[in-house]
Amino acid sequence: MKEKEKKMCSEDKAVLEVLENIDQTVETVFDRAQNMKCCPIGSSVSGICCKNCAMGPCRIRDDKVGLCGATLATIAARNLARHIAVGAAAHSDHGRDMAMLLKEVAEGKAEGLRIKDEEKLLRFARNLGIKTEDREVKEIALDAANKALALFGQQEGEIDFISLAPKKRQEIWRKNKIVPRGIDREVVETLHRTHMGVDQDPENILDHALRNALSDGWGGSMIGTEITDIIFNTPEALPAKTNLGMLSEKDVNLVVHGHEPTLSEVIADLADDKKLVEYAKSKGAQGINVVGICCTANEVLMRQGVAPIGNFLSQELAIMTGSVDAMVVDIQCIMQSLAEVVKKYHTKLITSSPKCKIPGATHVPFEDRKIYDTAREIIKMAIDNYSNRKDVKIPNITSDLVAGFSHEYIRYMLGGRFRQSLRPLNDGIIDGRIQGVVAIVGCNNARHVQDKYHNYLTKEFIKRDYLVVQTGCGAISSAKCGMLMPEAYELAGDGLKSICEAVGIPPVLHLGSCVDNSRILTVVSEVLAEGGLGEDVSDLPAAGIAPEWMSEKALSIGAYFAASGVYVLFGGEPIPVISSQEVVNIMTEGWDKKYGGKLEYVPDVEQILEKVINHIQAKRKALKIDVKKERVLFDMEARRELGNV
Ligand code: SF4
Ligand code: MSK
Predict the structure, then answer these.
(1) Which among 59, 68, 79, 192 is the best mutation to test ligand 1's pocket, defined by most ligand atoms within 8 Å of the CB?
(2) Which DSSP state fits 251?
């Protein structure tokens, strides 16, 4: 790859350094992105493809129809609905596994695991309609796990967490008949409706796609986040470091990658295990260094401060440093190319989930009941591989960060332990020190410079006093360039800076993995309940952006935010409907009218910035908070007056 082409791969200097150092015969995702162009029909820029029956595949452009007569709009809506169903299924199946784990913990069958956050368990159980008074914690946990599991197969009624949304929002969903009845039911119905010859009305197809997405955000994902907090602890702000420089020359490096927290939490927990450290020393290493990639990294970062060494596009590069003794992967966002890359390096690639095997990787099946045994076996494999290292070149690049902003911690940091409250946040928005809240979330995409749009937008928004909240790979982008440090308030506008200085927080808050986007739904509901910013999510001066999206989960997240009343913008690669103006109109003007939220593809990053600012300023005007109030510093005295300390 030529010098100039390398610069077009990433904004991350550590990634560029590895690309510089590697043997040119090793292929990366960046090479493949340059050598293989997107299919113009498949990318839906100049048409669309349907392969839902054996009379096709039908390639449709303009006013042509498929053999069955299906129009461009119908096919676009069907394709998008299927993507959303897959994304929702991925998140929700992860949530199901967490509910299964809670059941095993309650029954005492999950070796070494226990309920760490009992208070959160009680809230979770009560939200599921379970009696908690005068009962043993294990009994409550068992009932909560069974009730959560039942929501997957529920056939009628409404999934319970819908009742946590603002009342007005619930009514909008009921009026439009998109309240999810059961989590699995909505996925299956999407697949049925999009079978050849079933639902052919694009608007109707997409309404159901929204119901399906809601079953993810307010269902499967929420179950996943809540139970992970219950078993492994609700995150609190904690310092950590990031980037490839966190790989160690002298320690055994074990990378956890994927999305599931269970095995990785235990592996991280065992990194200081005396016997294992002794074993590592017996093999010539100083100790054991557990680090992470993608959202498994975010899970163990949020609770144990484990270093995320990179986001989605860094996974191959980590191995190419020659220092990764083992990479253990679980589910989602794991490139098959890893198996090819490890052929040229000493790294042991280990799969752990029965749902994700990769030819060429070693499969170490992970079962909840003997989780510590499995974790020890994997750590030993990494230790045994340490002496096989050859040429090690680790970029000396790291950044500091603060993560761990669960919704509970946000309430605590704003209000103190005894009067936890979002009031100061609402007041900050009302008096204009914070102009609005922008969620910048989602993946990297090899068709675009890694981290570029995430970082550009984040900087531009905080500069203009917009608080940025992040999850997933987007959060790791900001971490890598120091924007998750409290000192980053220097980059913020005066208003946001005054709040960050007083509370001691970064202007960019890391809320967790991609499943943890459900935390944003909770914060948004609690902000509304706090008062002064309208009655519904669509009243809030807020927006969501996925500037470098690539996964089907991102589409499900975007859809459940839109259905919840948020203006959502996707940048980078087009969402797979843009060749149909009819569908684009449904998802923008149509959804805006019905749901007060919309999902729009905006290719130009400057336009994203402008559109979000205009949207948020219009919301401020509608709330009559657009007039600049006198700036009041939010210091301890002010907090005392508010009664929050
Ligand atoms: Fe073609 Fe219709 Fe079959 Fe799709 S469902 S492949 S448009 S004939
Ligand atoms: S890992 S879904 S690339 S955020 Fe959650 Fe990152 Fe996107 Fe995967």
Answers:
(1) 68
(2) S
Q: Is 47 helix (H, G, I), strand (E, B) or coil?
A: coil
The yes-or-no verdict on residue 33 having pLDDT over 70 is: yes
CA 617 – CA 465 distance, rounded (Å) = 12
Q: What is the Cα–Cα distance from 630 to 61, expressed in whole angstroms?
A: 56
Q: How far apart are CA 209 and CA 192, in angstroms?
A: 12
Q: Which residues contact 71 (CB under 8 A, 6 or more apart)?
A: 60, 65
Give bridge partners of residue 591 from the DSSP assignment. Answer: none
**What CA–CA distance (Å, rounded) separates 69 from 53?**
13
In a domain, 397, yes or no: no
Distance 51 CA to ligand 1 centre (A): 6
Same-domain check for residues 206 and 297: no
- Whether 416 and 482 map to the same domain: the answer is yes
Distance 613 CA to ligand 2 centre (A): 26
Let me know whether 451 and 367 are in one domain.
no
Residues 208, 295 within the same domain: no
Task: Tell me the pTM.
Answer: 0.95
Tokens 């006093």, located at residue: 465
- Domain, as residue range, for 190: 60-232
Residue 374 lies inside a defined structural domain of this protein: yes
Which ligand ends up closest to the CA of 54?
Answer: 1
Q: Are residues 609 and 569 in the same domain?
A: yes
CATH code of the domain covering residue 439? 3.40.50.2030
For ligand 2, residues with CB inside 6 Å are: 259, 294-295, 311-312, 333, 442-443, 472-473, 513-514, 551, 553-554
Q: In this structure, are 303 and 358 located in the same domain?
A: yes
C-alpha closest to that of 249 among 282, 224, 225, 285: 285
CA 200, CA 204: separation in Å to the nearest integer?
A: 8
Domains held by the chain: number:
4
Token pair, residue 148, equals 């959560």
pLDDT digits (tens, 9 = 90+) for 206-248: 999 999 999 999 999 999 999 999 999 999 999 999 999 999 9
